[in-house]
Design brief:
TIM Barrel; 10 helices; OMPdeCOase_dom; binds orotidine-5'-monophosphate; OMPdecase_AS; alpha/beta; globular; decarboxylase; about 40% helix
Length: about 240
């Protein structure tokens, strides 16, 4: 593990485990990390995650836990016990929830997986945030929630690359920024609203680029991934 040359995390959002494995068989742990989210975990469970870690991939288990502190912490411990590299909780669950999860991981692992707080989903814009009754822009709410995540001792946040440079200035270089909503020039935007190209995201301060459909739905996913890595001068 930890031998990946690329900041790209490919989001495996498939409803068919064979299709996912077919894609994974074209990739090596040096090409990218892999993300398993709610759809695949619900369908195929811990065994699917283990099938990826056993091939040497760093796995981001994206289950975005959000519950009372004890429940969230125990769910994070269960996820960490699968041997994943990164997992996440919703920062809007609050400092106590995030801190309880972080503490339980630290009590149980010498090298716990990265614990990351989801701020404002990249599918949301200012209007969506304000419709929740929050009197801030999406960007301001991201900074606010990232502050709570840092206060709780989390390793970083999920945000859009549009907030990356402000977050690095505010919270420092070591606070990890995981950015979905990445779209190579000309790619379909889909349901994402706060987007950026891979190259621009990295130059803005993103540490990890979560990319799903532009890779997974491509005719030649490996070629698209290689082109992204090349655009970052990595391959
Ligand atoms: O936590 C995430 O990974 C996540 C947070 C967020 O704010 N936005 C977001 O799109 N994601 C995930 O990132 C992936 C993006 O996929 P594509 O839009 O297909 O590139 C999906 O698996 C989402 O579940």
């Amino acid at each position: 593990m930890q031998n990946c040359n690329s900041p790209v995390v490919v989001a495996l959002d498939f409803n068919d485990a064979q299709k996912a494995q077919q894609l994974v068989s074209q990739l090596t742990p040096a090409d990218c990390r892999l993300k398993v989210g709610k759809e695949m975990f619900t369908l195929f469970g811990p065994e699917f995650v283990k099938s990826l870690t056993s091939k040497g991939f760093d796995v981001f288990l994206d289950l975005k836990f959000h519950d009372i502190p004890a429940t969230t912490a125990k769910a994070c411990l269960a996820a960490a016990n699968l041997g994943v590299w990164m997992l996440n909780v919703h920062a809007s669950g609050g400092v106590n929830m995030m801190q309880t999860a972080k503490n339980l991981l630290q009590d149980n692992f010498q090298n716990p997986p990265l614990l990351i707080g989801v701020t404002v989903l990249t599918s949301m814009d200012d209007q969506d945030i304000q419709s929740l009754g929050i009197q801030r822009s999406a960007g301001e709410q991201v900074i606010h929630l990232a502050g709570l995540a840092q206060q709780a001792g989390l390793d970083g946040v999920v945000c859009s690359a549009q907030e990356a440079s402000a977050l690095k200035s505010e919270f420092g270089q070591d606070f990890k920024l995981v950015t979905p909503g990445i779209r190579p020039e000309g790619a379909d935007v889909g349901d994402q609203k706060r987007i950026m190209t891979p190259k621009k995201a990295i130059s803005s301060g993103s540490d990890y680029l979560v990319i799903g459909r532009p890779v997974t739905q491509a005719d030649n996913p490996k070629a698209v991934l290689d082109a992204i890595n090349q655009s970052l001068n990595l391959a």
